[in-house]
Prior knowledge:
Layout: E1 5-10, H1 14-24, E2 29-34, H2 37-46, E3 51-55, E4 57-58, E5 61-62, H3 63-73, E6 78-83, H4 88-96, E7 101-104, H5 109-134, H6 149-161, E8 168-172, H7 178-187, E9 196-200, H8 209-214, H9 231-234, E10 239-243, H10 250-262, E11 264-265, E12 274-275, E13 279-284, H11 288-293, H12 299-305, E14 308-312, H13 322-336, E15 343-344, H14 346-354, H15 360-374, E16 379-380, H16 387-390, H17 404-418, H18 423-430, H19 434-443
Amino acid sequence: MPESYKILVIDDEESILKLLSKELASPERILHTANCAEAAREQIRKNRYDVIISDIRLPDGNGLELLTEFKDIEPDGEVILITGHGNIDNAVEAIRIGAYDYITKPFRLDRVELVVERAWQRVCLQRENRSYKHSQNDTASTQLIGKASSIKHIHHLISKVAPTEVPVLITGDSGAGKDVVARSIHTASRRSGKPLIVKNCATLQKELARSELFGHARGSFTGATDNSDGLMTFAHTGTLFLDEIGELPMEVQASLLRVLESHTFRRVGEKDERTVDIRFLFATNRNLTQEVEAGRFHEALFHRINVFNINLPPLKDRREDVPLLVDFFLRKLGQQMGQGEYTVSERAMQCMLSYYWPGNVRELRNVLERSIILSDNYVITCNCLPREIADQPERDSETGILSLERMEREHIIKAIDFFSGNKLKAAEALGIGRKTLYRKIDKYNL
Ligand SMILES: Nc1ncnc2c1ncn2[C@@H]1O[C@H](COP(=O)(O)OP(=O)(O)OP(=O)(O)O)[C@@H](O)[C@H]1O
Ligand SMILES: [Mg+2]
């Protein structure tokens, strides 16, 4: 449970405000007071309260109205109402429209204490449920495997930046581990017990992006039949990870910048600003500098999200981690499939070490998943690997030197690939005649 929570006590009787403030004071509670509906409204909009305790009858309004307004802003917050003696009808109505409980005046302080504590527990439970619903893949890995110096450096960066509030921009090719980095930052941060909301900006529909991010008020556009919360509200107190940030529609970029700078936003169709407390993480495999130059990304937003950059190198630049990753995935996948321990033949490992892994760690994982299915007796051999991986040039096992024939074969494949199968051009580039090339293609069975 979080360390502290905020309570607003609303009553026009000064003595009650004083009494409750004094009696409810504890290290984990932050208590504010308001003596009329108007003042309460302002505070509710400005601060994020977890629980409010309000008199039903106020000089300029009533607690029931405040209840609805508060729930609108803080759907997981709870309201406790204070009613005068013999005013039970009101109290029942209050529960019906969403109050957590009511206390009757004159009240017993131990009962107030109990009700407040229970209300707070309920707030926590609701937030937790919501975060489960929104974390798309809560079994996803937070362990960044690797001992290559580039990965060690990333471990170091994560340990430094995680405890801060600084936004982090995670870059790198597809499948290189950006999600893993984002999750490990959240896990190592003070917000680890709070929601981690993940949103892939490429899936935001242009017309609805604003509403999805910031929420909307009833009737603000066709189809907005109800008030609705956006991701900013779900991520409140936690972390919002905006994946593929380069895809964020231009239209909402300025509003995101505003949240980053002033921690405030507006729902679609509302004038009032709301405050949020969110740690932001971003990821992209696009070159954002180019996007800025092309006018597709706001420069100011770019600078704001690019305060701290973690760049994941492609797997081919840290091949020494391949065996470690292979071990990790075989153990994990083996367990998931409820089977035994897998090993990898030396030759198969050689092939995986030489391959260039265009799909990075994700491709490695997928290859292993497939090879487990094809393997016999829990041994992964070249036969279990896709051809493009199994077909790595054979090297002398002692010296690692490639035979000349093997070199020639590889070289010809490269040339033909380069010219997309055009053999005439390939022969020209290789400095041999077309016929010679055909002969070699035959010889090497290409
Ligand atoms: N260093 C690592 N240690 C353990 N698992 C990893 C590592 N890097 C990547 N993975 C795993 O590989 C897969 C792909 O990684 P991830 O989803 O983080 O890639 P990404 O960079 O976010 O890719 P994309 O740009 O396509 O979103 C995931 O299953 C992830 O758990
Ligand atoms: Mg990703």
